[in-house]
Amino acid sequence: MTQPRVLVIGGGLAGLSATMRLAELGVHVDLVSLVPVKRSHSVCAQGGINSVNAVTRQQGDNEWKHFDDTVYGGDFLQHQPPVKEMAEWAPRIIDLMDRLGVPFNRTPEGFRDQRRFGGTLYKRTSFAGATTGQQLLYALDEQVRRWEGEGRVKKWEFWDFLEPVVDDDGRCIGAVCQDMVTMKFKAFSADAVILASGGCGLLYGRSTMSMICTGSAVSRAYKAGVKYGNAEFIQVHPTAVPGADKLRLMSESARGEGGRVWVPRKPQDARDPKDIPVDERYYFLEERYPEYGNLVPRDIATREIFDICTTDGLSVEKDRLCVYLDLTHIPRETLDRKLGGILEIYEKFQGVDPRNAPMKIFPAVHYSMGGLWVDYEKNENGGLVEGSPRNQQTNIQGLYAIGECDYQYHGANRLGANSLLSCIFSGLFCASGVIAGGKKNTRDETSPDFIAAVKKQEEIHQAILSRPAGESNPYDIHRQLGDIMTRTATVVRRNDQLTQAYDDVCQLENVWQHCSLSDTGNWTNQNVVFTKAVGDMFPLAKLMLKGALLRDECRGAHYKPDFSMPGIEATEPVEQRAEAERWCDRFEANTKKWLKSTIGVHGNDGHPVITYEDVDTTLIPPRPRLYGLVGGEVIEQVWKERTEKATETATVG
Amino acid sequence: MATTSIPEDSFLGRHQFLLYRLFSLAGFIPVGAFLIVHLLTNASVLGGAAAFQSRVDLIHSLGPLLPAVEWIFIFIPMLFHAVMGFVIIATGVPNIGSYSYQGNVRYTLQRATGMIAFAFILWHITQLHWMGAPVGGGQFDPHHAASSAAVALKPVAITLLYATGIIATVYHFANGLWSMGITWGIWTSPAAMQRANWLSLFVGIGLGAAGLGALGGMRSIDVEKAKEIETRMYKARQMLDGGISAEAQQHSAHAVSLSRESSSVMPAGSTSSANKEKRSKKKD
Amino acid sequence: MITASTLLNSETIAEHEQSPQEIRVRVLRQDAPGEESYWQQFAIPYEPNMNVISVLQRIAAISKAQDGRKVAPVAWDCACLEEICGSCAMLINGRVRMACSSLVDNLFKETPGEIELRPLTKFPVVRDLSVDRERIFHSLQRVKAWVPVDDSYDHGPGPRISPEEQEDAYPLTTCISCGCCMEACPQFNKIEVVQREEESDEELESRKQSAYDQQFLGPHAISQAVRFNSHPTGSMNADERMQSLTGQGGIQMCGNAQNCVAVCPKSIPLTRSIARAGRAATVWAIKKFFDR
Q1: Cβ–Cβ gap C60/A128 under 8 Å
Q2: Do C80 and A101 touch (CB under 8 A)?
């Protein structure tokens, strides 16, 4: 009976890797998941997973450069020690996944093949066809099934996490969950609880995320007192295919192979796109960015597509924002050879052949960089102390967060193919610390703490079920919330809109309080589960809006045109120089003011209380991101001189 | 509403794989092999009553061993194949209504033709084989192979039943051959399975032609002429095997029909010598 | 795959082109296990580019039957909506399909203006279109579908694998455990173990497991066994997998109807796997017999 017990919430890459490692270390794991773990959202990841490898190493790459790329890509908003540790673990993680049987693509000699991804110069990305996430998830799922067979892991699939149970000393001793089939409640006593519940894309109505990414588990932890970091940082992918039910990703390679983005110059031109003459088409990316054309950096493409539809009102369709992504000028055979797979997806889901008709695409919410605040213990080399109970632990002792639901690794913007890495890394890495910090929890599920917690949840559940019939239903409320969030808190953010949105969301939350259920039964009631999840979206939505409203700057995915730092306008070298100096002054001031984690705490009145925490940037000093900026080279020169001077002073001093 | 579940510790449960594989094997060897020999033997009727008779004689040269051979190599394996077949049919739920793919249609036909073949063979045995004699069947006379068969098969309804039975049996065998190749892992890739399809089609058409040809051949036999030939051959054999004349007398059932043929001409020398040749070979 | 759409004549296409105003949906509902199932009709406004998921979402939002009666929303499973999580398999117009990749416009080519939804028939109904597919994963457990690594510590890279081997294995690894192959397989039968009075959840669970253990593994699990037996490390416990493949409910249950490969939403060469497993079983059984 001395076997330690850990409760893991969520069975994606993070939850499964933690479960695997814990089981291996002799821990009994209860694994709770909304769906069979093999169906978790990690399965949707396509591109690949980053790590330094034998080839790139010989081309001058190393773990430090991977670390640097990640931090630079994230606009320096992440604490550096965990990122450094992750980059150092990366090669070992790929090796491990390779050993677990992931069918990584191979070179003719039988080594793992790598491709290049955004934000780096090296071919660091290992991939398995176009379904790397699926393959990684399955490999871990298989290992966990093996442990399940050994009796070390017990899965609780189709179970909903409702609340962590915290004892009088403020330590997490378990959780209350609900069986979504029988609707029964159960308390889980555990020495530690690990949240690995993923992102919260459903706050935006439709996103590239799965229907299970409601963020409810995270919101419930937040409401129970866990701090939430960098809520306003949400990654929006430039090209997704709008569907009635969700937005499906359209790979960047479509533009890489020559796809052109355009809209009709006449708003909502009803003609068949092929009948619209070229001079009546607006190739806005090519016109506005003659140098980069359709392959402008992701955030710029996202913003421009968003702008052309909202500000300029040139969306192809009236009721649905979208632009054309046109491949029809490319020969069929070329398309089939180079883009076959992704074009088939479009065809399958849209019923239209993109070889004959332009695709309709629009940016879509894709990933939440923010998440539950977690701690770490730094070692003398700037990495992490392995086995420290502080690693991945939230501000509630015994409650951990890993994977997309923590805020630790991606700062203000995530690099492609780094999410799979951060999920597996945080899962594997946290295990030893969770065990070290695990205080034997002697209370079983019949102890008063748990009985009270279950009773509370039963009462909440009953209260929702017995609500009087009202006008609105949770599905409409969810759609409205999604509309507000998508309109105001995605690509372009303006303070007046955010203020308005915050009020609207609060009002909508009131409506939710009185929305009625169409199913009041107690068997597989998906209606009540969804209603609860929608209710739990409001605290997070308010946190995101408030965080975005308060952060008066542009950083990574957070873009406020009112606070943007445009490039150099001057043409005279001297003036250019002076302007660059001013630019750098402003950058330094901005860094000083805003290079801070946004920390949200759920206030008693239901509104978030926001504070700021310094970011550990001791390993790599912050520097400006100048990609695509006019006059960037002058600014870079000035910045270089400043840092050199600073280093000299430091050495002399 | 769990479906018929076989307990794990039962004989059928423990040896399921072996039984299913033996079932599959039995369908090919000896049952399928017998089918080929049988249909080709019968098809020899197309070469005339004498040709057919000489082949029948060859089989019957086993004498008292024949029933044992039949039971061990034909009836028992066939019965095993049939019993297992019914067990397998009982565990499946055909669904061509929803999934009318070629493979599924063939799967369903395999089961249907298996049942038809089973019923047909049972009836066929009672009707023609000596085993059916007590219940009024057993109409086949091995000494007057073509003529007795021709008489038995003459009614149109019987002919139609035979045609159906033969087609079903041949389909069951040919398609079973294809299926067996997958079961045992002989053809594994979709392309190889496609090639095997051609093989099975070829075997099916060949055997079907042999079977239906035999049926047609027997129907078109001139009974009287055939009887003459057969009687001559029978007598020739009796002369050769003088010692067994007593046994020949026991074929009292045929005595009536034979009496009228006793005056017929001697068999053609060629047939007789061919027969003799074969028999002596056997003795070697 | 031959679908009704390819057999469609031009007349129906012309008819279809005047988009219908509404979608009539017939759903076979069941409130809970053991209860009678019943048909319910819904009507929702037609929109272009809808799939069955969005149809069900609209039904959930209105929660009214066609006759205007307030009804509970239809229960169904879904997650990714891009045919990779494997959640939303159901019978759509009588055939097993993924709801997310079933487009209304295509379905209308089969039955204009109408869609019929039923739960899978080979798995016990939990509620409405939601079924208990635990057996899919149980089969994976039976064939030990994993690479038996020592531990998750660093031991360097995995074995070298040629691109040909990778290309051979890759399609098998894309199985999404949706259950379509099992649903369409005429040799795969439903097992529904109902909780007895005073039976605990644990007892029910173990009774369920042993019932599953005796019945057909299903095409997906055979394919996974083949995949792991051909992996250099995975093959180290190939013997155990062969034991399962030739045990009760093993590969012998396959009747070569080949529906599995025809309905597989991921076009996995399941019959190739089955034939390979058959070959391996032949060799293994003979070896075992003579080595004994």
Answers
A1: no
A2: no
